[in-house]
Amino acid sequence: MKRIGVLTSGGDAPGMNAALRAVVRTAVHDGLTVFGIYRGYQGLIEGDLAEFGPRSVANVIQRGGTVLRTARSEEFYEAPGRAKAAEVLRAHGIEGLVVIGGDGSFRGAEALHREHGVKVVGIPATIDNDIAGTDVSIGFNTALDVALDAVDRLRDTAASHDRLFLVEVMGRRAGHIALHVGVAGGAEAILVPEVPMPLERVVDLVRDADARGKTSSIIVVAEGAYGGGARVVEQALRERAGYEVRTVILGHTQRGGSPVTRDRVLASRLGFHAVRALLAGDEAVMVGTDRRQITHVPLSSLPGLSKGIDEELLEIAAVLAV
Ligand code: F6P
Predict the structure, then answer these.
(1) 168 C-alpha vs ligand 1 centroid, how far in Å?
(2) Residue 318 lies in a domain
(3) pLDDT at residue number 32
(4) Does residue 113 sit within a domain?
(5) For residue 254, which atom of ligand 1 is closest to its CA?
(6) Residues 62 and 7 occupy one common structural domain
(7) Is ligand 1 within 6 A of the CB of residue 255?
């Protein structure tokens, strides 16, 4: 293998740039030519790529977002789109592709390999941390710190006004951010899509907290809980029990900011090992970690795996909320 490409795909995550830097520099170190592909699979289909050298990724390790930019390409999810992408790769003599992204991006990479023989390696990067087969994805730890900072600030004002706050964090299908931020922020309740708590029970929890003398409360809600996140919970508290609630939706603020140390180190390790996996002959794997050791997980096995929520941590949170 002489030439490889690298792209970022799906929602951006802090640390993607650190992973890109590691891929480019490892590739050059190992004697490969490396192409940076802009705007994810859509840019690949359109031939939007350039040769990268070590200086192309100077001063990016500390930057959030992705300097390659990213996209969610509808076209690539259809076979003709993937055929166009494969043709662009062939035209540039690119035999291996590193995809920095989440599970949707990996499904696309696996199809590209299956249909066109392109060797692909995935690097797990999403703030949601919902990728099975690896301990943690790039961006998760940074998003936690951003969200936790917001919760801490809200606690100051909640306590000053004796108020009930709902804080909605990202995670359309996964409650990992909510769970960790909720525990670290001392939330009264943590509401996640994986373990739906009946709304009646949420109302009871707030009533009980009042009865125990709590004057202010913070409830952390994952975006995907109840199908509509914090707004659904707000309505229930208001209509069923007359509570006056302040709702804060953190949204995309959680995706921005400089990556924390752990995300940068993880990204550097995974970027390095992604290139080494291609050179070792891996054809379609995700590089990840299992108890911090590097693993190579076949992309084809990922849809069959699931990353469950840590139910013990949910239970601990409930115990500590007395
Ligand atoms: O997958 C990461 C994520 O930030 C989810 O938590 C969120 O639901 C989604 O992306 C938002 O996507 P978009 O940036 O397309 O609005």
Answers:
(1) 13
(2) no
(3) 98
(4) yes
(5) 4
(6) yes
(7) yes
d(CA 131, CA 144): 16
List strands edge to edge, sheet with 284-290.
49-52, 33-37, 3-8, 96-101, 119-124, 284-290, 293-298
Query: Whose CA is closest to 106, among 130, 140, 80, 141?
Result: 130
Which atom, in ligand 1's list, is nearest to the CA of 255? 4
Active site members: 128
Query: Which CATH number characterizes residue 118's domain?
Result: 3.40.50.450
Q: State whether 161 and 251 are in the same domain.
A: yes
Q: Using a 6 Å cutoff on CB, does residue 282 contact ligand 1?
A: no
The pLDDT assigned to 16 comes to 98
Same domain for 54 and 97:
yes
CB within 8 Å of 210: residues ≥ 6 apart = none
pTM over 0.90: yes
Q: Which atom of ligand 1 is nearest to the CA of 224?
A: 8
Taking the centre of ligand 1 as the mean of its atom positions, its distance from the CA of residue 8, in whole angstroms, is 14
* HSE, side-chain direction, 13 A CA sphere, residue 10: 23
Owning domain of residue 37 = 3-139+259-304
Q: Which of 172, 192, 223 has most ligand 1 atoms within 8 Å of its beta carbon, as the pocket-test mutant?
A: 172
Q: Is the same domain home to 7 and 129?
A: yes
Between the CA of 128 and the centroid of ligand 1 the distance, in Å, is 8
CATH of the domain at 188: 3.40.50.460
Q: For the chain, what is the domain count?
A: 2
Residues 18-41 pLDDT 10s: 999 999 999 999 999 999 999 999
CA 296 to each of CA 23, 139, 226, 276: distance values in angstroms, whole numbers, following the listed order? 16, 20, 35, 11
Based on the fold, state whether residues 248 and 134 are members of the same structural domain.
no
| Residue-level pLDDT at 122 | 98
Q: Whose CA is nearest to atom 13 of ligand 1?
A: 11
pLDDT tens across 49-68, in order?
999 999 999 999 999 999 99
322 falls within a domain: no
250 C-beta closer than 6 A to ligand 1: no
Closest residue by Cα to atom 8, ligand 1, is: 172
